[in-house]
Amino acid sequence: MMKQKEFNIPFSGLRQGKHEFEYTINNPFFESFGYDEFNAADINLHVALNKMSTMLELEMKAQGTVNVNCDLTSEPFDLPIEADLELVVKFGEEFNDEDDEILIIPHREHQVNIAQYVYEMLVLAVPQKRIHPGVLDGTLQSEALKRLEELQPKEEKKESDPRWDELKKLLTDK
């Protein structure tokens, strides 16, 4: 948990009220979690912290692109992503992050690390199926697409067999 020190938000010295933090997230961030699905990442993260006497409210909003390989063609492309997450930080006897929206940290803590939440929020923002926009609009020219087209089953018009036609009539004559 001590990796990603830049995602430690020291709240003890802050006055009550709203505080803003900005982060730029790129590939080393994901690699530090052992995640290597992205060729590149360029994401802006805005964190709004509302400090109250008994708890902290964190609102995280991320926007940017991740470069991924298309699931159909393996062609790399920039996929725009957006994500947001609200997190409530409360104080208790011991650390507890079992709830997705409430983090409990010990009373003695003076900072909170949001790296794990940011990581999960961003990875979940990426669609399961990653399809190059050029595949969808027909503009992408790639060897993989040409090959897929060649291998696609061809629709054949068969002459129908008159013996089967007589049997099919039985099905429709009910």
The class by helix and strand makeup works out as: alpha+beta
Taken from the alpha-carbon principal axes, the silhouette is elongated
What is the H/E string? EEHEEEEEHHHH
| Largest sheet: number of strands, sense, barrel closure | 5 strands, mixed
Binned, the helix content reads: 10-25%
Rounded mean pLDDT score = 85
Number of beta strands: 7
Number of domains: 1
Count every helix, treating DSSP H or I runs of 4 or more residues as helices. 5
Strand content: 35-45%
Distance between the termini: 70 Å
Indicate the radius of gyration in whole angstroms: 26 Å
The quaternary state of the protein chains shown equals single chain
Q: Which sequence of strands runs across the widest sheet?
A: 2-3-4-5-6
Low-pLDDT stretches: none
Question: If you had to describe this structure to a student in words, what would you say it looks like?
Answer:
The structure is a single chain. With about 170 residues, this protein is of the alpha+beta class. The chain has one domain (about 5-145). The protein contains 5 helices and 7 strands. The chain has a 5-stranded mixed sheet with strand order 2-3-4-5-6. A hairpin with a 3-residue loop joins strand 3 and strand 4 (about 55-70). It is elongated and about 85 Å long. The model has no long low-confidence stretch (mean pLDDT about 85).
